[in-house]
Design a protein that fits this description.
single chain, about 170 residues, alpha/beta, 7 helices, about 45% helix, about 15% strand, globular
Length: about 170
């Protein structure tokens, strides 16, 4: 299973990705800031988003990679694989923007719903706790900033926690 997460310039329709991270385990997470100066039309910015992810435009310009190079790496590593996100609606939009603006067909990478996958596993196994109860017990004290790499790591830890803390109804 590969987990992916994006951070974006805003939540508006004209927004663009500013950070992406993915990995198939907590130890293999790759995270990239995306420099918007390389891309025509990537000018959207909502200053309120800084409160959410803590990324500045200056940081993107100084430390961000060329989005086209990141898109190429994504296509090489993720095309045709099972890729999951906890927010597939948004992450698919930003994946599509990154890939199409970089000259790739966005359909080569499909993002699936991690929440749906986990709920299905819990329900199919007839576990004694609900998905919401398990997630709430895991995240009750979570106050982290949203950054793509940290979010991917957190989602892997959530999956690990769910797998370790589920009790079979028949037990």
């Amino acid at each position: 299973m590969i987990i992916i997460d994006f951070e974006a310039s805003s939540l508006r329709k004209i927004s663009h990705p500013i950070e992406v991270a993915w990995g198939d385990s907590p130890e293999t997470i790759k995270s990239y800031l995306l420099n918007p100066d390389y891309m025509a039309g990537w000018t959207d910015w909502n200053p309120k988003c800084f409160e959410f992810h803590g990324i500045t435009q200056e940081e993107l310009r100084n430390k961000g990679a060329d989005p086209r190079e990141v898109a190429e790496q994504m296509v090489v590593e993720l095309a045709g694989k099972d890729v999951y996100s906890d927010e597939p609606r948004y992450d698919t939009r930003w994946k599509n923007r990154l890939l199409s603006d970089s000259g790739y067909d966005p359909s080569v990478i499909r993002i699936r719903d991690l929440n749906h996958y986990l709920k299905h596993r819990i329900n199919a196994a007839s576990y004694c706790k609900s998905f919401n109860d398990l997630v709430c017990s895991f995240e009750c004290c979570e106050t982290r900033r949203h950054r793509a790499g940290v979010d991917v790591y957190w989602l892997f830890k959530l999956v690990e926690y769910l797998e370790e803390n589920l009790c079979e109804a028949s037990s």
